[in-house]
């Protein structure tokens, strides 16, 4: 069997794995990206992605931004708590940036990245499912199947961007998991009010509802209890819109139409640590978060960006990639950002679903206090946009 050798092998060609492959390629580091599925025409994932201004800057540097067919700016975020007083409005001016972020379609981003990899001839193999990983102090050896054939490849640095499936094979990496018993229902929605760049995050006792500006309508991410998710997904359109209106309220007038609905089970899953011998984890493989406040991909993109930086530094200083010093530097640099992202989304996902009136009052007060203190608003907004280092 022919065994290929690469400086870096990335397993998983989701948006984070592709971002890393493009970023390494642009800096002259040879890598191989293996993706189990990966045919862009077949990727129909309907989820919207709210990208922070910081992610926009990274995607621009990677040459992906200009290939996105639909980008909707978020100029203001309106945060409220259903049936309780208190609300906060965050504007781009509060954060000192031209816009708070942008909404794009996951499948558009996927195709734009794939196109960029194709243009630059990034080494990318689709339909390649990694099955086995063997690691020693000098290298990682992987086995994968492609078109019915068993293949092998060897690398000095293995990066897992596979959403968290393979790391269980690696000694020393453990996952902590919390199931929310919730699903996110996503759909494109039209309302009688026209969208003007305002994103809504409305907390309810069952979970948050996000309505993000998208094209000439809104992209809905509605968190519902696991027990009612199937029933909500199978409602006819008008009953679905009536229920959504009931939960969200009147701010957007009448809910006029809905596109196809899809559901995603929600879980918090994070690896500890995110590195092992000759191995680093990025994106959902390192941390899978609740979608409230749209942090997951933004965080994963910063993982890919920082890892590229460490790989380049390590290659320049020692001409060796994947040494423990390099891996530790990557893990240390990402620690605060990923801990903050986890704490932020996990707290938001849980705190507002309480039935305790006192805690609900406290949450409402928190939103009002945040609204009246511009320096704190700026602090929160900049951390949502640029990560824990603001
Ligand atoms: C409803 C919803 C809304 C969201 N909204 C936002 C948002 O607004 N903003 C935001 O920043 N984030 C958001 N997220 C989170 C975001 O979607 C994820 O963080 C992001 O897609 C993770 O990308 P990834 O590349 O790390 O992993 P994945 O997308 O999970 O990709 C992993 C890839 O690895 C491949 N793979 C798996 N196993 C193997 C194997 N053995 N061999 C080879 N390949 C393999 C898979 O085929 C897949 O392509 C949302 C999530 C949900 C569920």
UniProtKB/TrEMBL annotation:
InterPro entries: FAD-bd (IPR002938), FAD/NAD-bd_sf (IPR036188), Ubi_Hdrlase_CS (IPR018168), UbiH/COQ6 (IPR010971), UbiH/COQ6_monooxygenase (IPR051205)
Presence of the UniProt keyword Oxidoreductase in the record: yes
Pfam families documented for this protein: FAD_binding_3
Gene3D superfamilies: FAD/NAD(P)-binding domain
UniProt keywords, alphabetically: FAD, Flavoprotein, Monooxygenase, Oxidoreductase, Ubiquinone
GO MF annotation: an example: FAD binding
Obligatory cofactor(s): FAD
Superkingdom: Bacteria
Pathway: Cofactor biosynthesis; ubiquinone biosynthesis
A GO biological-process term: ubiquinone biosynthetic process
Every FAD-binding domain range: 6-334
Family to which this protein belongs: Belongs to the UbiH/COQ6 family.
Listed name of the protein: 2-octaprenyl-6-methoxyphenol hydroxylase
Originating species: Nitrosomonas communis
Taxonomy of the source species: Bacteria, Pseudomonadati, Pseudomonadota, Betaproteobacteria, Nitrosomonadales
């Amino acid at each position: 069997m022919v065994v290929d050798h690469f400086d870096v092998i990335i397993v998983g060609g989701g948006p984070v794995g592709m971002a890393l492959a493009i970023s390494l390629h642009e800096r002259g580091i040879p890598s191989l990206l293996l993706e189990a599925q990966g045919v862009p025409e077949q990727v129909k994932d309907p989820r919207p992605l709210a990208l922070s201004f910081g992610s926009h800057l990274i995607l621009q540097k990677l040459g992906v931004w200009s290939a996105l067919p639909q980008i909707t700016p978020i100029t203001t975020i309106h945060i409220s708590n259903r049936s309780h007083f208190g609300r906060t409005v965050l504007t781009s001016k509060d954060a000192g940036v031209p816009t708070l972020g942008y909404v794009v379609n996951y499948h558009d981003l996927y195709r734009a990245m794939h196109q960029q990899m194709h243009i630059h001839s990034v080494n990318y193999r689709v339909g390649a499912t990694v099955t086995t990983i063997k690691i020693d102090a000098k290298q990682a050896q992987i086995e994968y199947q492609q078109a019915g054939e068993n293949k092998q490849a060897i690398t000095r640095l293995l990066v897992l961007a596979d959403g968290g499936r393979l790391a269980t094979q690696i000694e020393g990496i453990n996952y902590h998991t919390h199931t929310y018993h919730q699903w996110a229902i996503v759909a494109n929605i039209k309302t009688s009010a026209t969208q003007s760049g305002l994103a809504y995050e409305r907390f309810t006792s069952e979970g948050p509802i996000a309505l993000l500006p998208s094209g000439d309508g809104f992209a809905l991410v509605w968190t519902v209890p696991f027990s009612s998710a199937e029933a909500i997904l199978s409602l006819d359109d008008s009953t679905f819109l009536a229920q959504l209106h009931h939960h969200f309220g009147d701010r957007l007038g009448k809910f006029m139409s809905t596109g196809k609905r899809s559901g995603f089970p929600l879980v918090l899953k994070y690896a500890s640590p995110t590195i092992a011998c000759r191995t680093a984890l990025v994106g959902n493989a390192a941390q899978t978060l609740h979608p409230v406040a749209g942090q997951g991909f933004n965080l994963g993109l910063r993982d890919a960006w920082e890892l590229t930086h460490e790989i380049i530094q390590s290659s320049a200083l020692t001409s060796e990639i994947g040494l423990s010093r390099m891996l530790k530097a990557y893990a240390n640099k990402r620690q605060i950002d990923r801990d903050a992202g986890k704490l932020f989304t996990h707290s938001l996902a849980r705190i507002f679903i309480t039935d305790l009136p006192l805690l609900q009052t406290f949450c409402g007060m928190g939103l009002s206090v945040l609204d009246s203190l511009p320096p704190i608003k700026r602090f929160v907004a900049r951390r949502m946009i640029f990560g824990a280092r603001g």
